[in-house]
Amino acid sequence: MDRNGLVNVADVWEMTIALSDLSKYQTTNSLDNAQLLLVANLTNRNLIDNRDLQALIVGLANANGSGGGSVSAVPEPRSLAILALRGLIVLGWTRLRMPNER
Description:
The chain is mostly helical. It has a domain at 9-65. It has helices at residues 9-20, 22-28, 33-40, 50-61, 79-97. α1 (9-20) packs across α2 and α1 packs antiparallel against α4.
């Protein structure tokens, strides 16, 4: 976005500025419509909006696949496993609370 040939944090700021006024960004950088889409359409929807900025941020956070950090979603544990664990906890708790019957 900042036209230096690198994808880095500076592009996030530039994308934020561009999104505030796409026409001004396009004019200032002498871009036609096709060039603007090539530079800023990161979600391939032929539309430039906040989703493109989010894609840029996620790409940077994930180091664009180079093995850096990750902000990918972590899968949630299965509901059945949670239910079974809760059952064991309740069972253990009730056994501790019950007086010994002999």
